[in-house]
Amino acid sequence: MSDGSSSCSVAKTPGPPSDIPNGGFMAWYQVLGSFFLFFNCWGIINTFGVFQTYYEQDLLKSRSAMDISWVGSVQAFLLVFIGVFTGPLFDQGYFRQLIGVGSFLVVFGMMMTSLCHEYWEVMLAQGIVTGLGSGCLFLPSVAILPTYFSTKKALAQGFAASGSSLGGVIYPIVFHKLQPHIGFRWATRVIGFIMLATLVIPNAGMRMRIKPSGRRKMFEAGALREAPFVLFAAGTFFGFMGMYMPFFYVQSYAMEKNFMNDNLAFYLLSITNAASAFGRIVPNFFADRTGPLNMLLPTSIMAGILGFVWISVHNAGGMIVFCIFYGFFSGTFVSLPPTAVVTLSPSLSVVGARMGMNFVIASTGLLIGTPIGGLLLDHGWVALQAWCGACVLMAALFIFLARLTKISRVSYHLRSFYNP
């Protein structure tokens, strides 16, 4: 049964469906361009686990795992949070300026990271500068596709979002292979040069097909009186709070438990990200038919269960299998929430504001989730793994409640909470 899957957009979808190309060279070029935008924003976020391990063992070994994880958390937080500000700029037609500034910042941030020696320097360069650049790239990559596709929106979004998985495969391998031979500085610079080269593609040919009409509100109060939206927003908060635990810590876990050699352990993050690519394409293909909530619910349940399964993994084979399955089932949490927000909106006129509100809530979960995991790690790996599983299962519960209140058509307005 469909939950009314619709377009993922940060602004009004222009014109009737017949006016939208829904294919052709330029439409698919936008998908390719968005693929490389994801490759260099979420892809570099998905790579942080390899930096986390290196910093713990070498560059920042005097700092705790929680301190180091704040760098990746701030980077991920800014990627999502500044969508509140880049959304109105996109709506005013500043698409090319956003991806131009974002491209400069992510490359500049990585180049500056290569020069870092102190914790505050890493936080500034990799956490803040690269995070701000990633945020400038992320929202345009999401918002441009609905202007080119009408019936293949979720699939196009899935293909684009798989770029983050490929980035999360390639960048860790590049760092791992080069760092022992040419050092941290040049290994990080090589990543920066790859980012520079791949960002030429979106900057060269991505174009706004039509400027969105009207002004975008940054806040839509009516959303807070609609139970399905509030419940779904709570689900994204808990989901992002727990989902990135394996992406940040899976290598450190395997190396500390010593059930596989360090070389194989370094590939676990790439394996997780490779599986995540399929988790962003396959469910999105079905989401165009079943609706995004119907795909998010079972995949979230499975990812949450796997968080607890992680506790019992104590050998190399089990670790690889865990990474494959967790990568696949967690993949939908990047590609489908924007489409789900559209489904939970009464009209396209409020989608932009609701998207921004959901971004703010999700980014808060990203900001605090992995540092809390790092703090729990002081009490052992089981505490961190249970935190991962509990958060993602809590997300699944809220997604289920959002789905339930939506299909039951019960008017669960929250006005009484604000006017008792």
From TrEMBL:
Keywords: Membrane, Transmembrane, Transmembrane helix
Chief subcellular location: membrane
Transmembrane segments: 27-48, 68-86, 98-120, 126-148, 186-206, 227-249, 264-283, 295-313, 319-344, 356-376, 382-402
Localization: Membrane
Membrane-topology annotation of the record: Multi-pass membrane protein
GO CC term, one of those recorded: membrane
InterPro entries in UniProt: MFS, MFS_dom, MFS_trans_sf, Proton-linked_MCT
Domain Major facilitator superfamily (MFS) profile: 26-406
Pfam family, one: MFS_1
A GO molecular-function descriptor: transmembrane transporter activity
Record flagged with keyword Flavoprotein: no
UniProt cross-references to CDD domains, sorted A to Z: MFS_MCT_SLC16
Family: Belongs to the major facilitator superfamily. Monocarboxylate porter (TC 2.A.1.13) family.
Entry protein name: MFS general substrate transporter
Organism for this UniProt entry: Aspergillus sclerotiicarbonarius (strain CBS 121057 / IBT 28362)
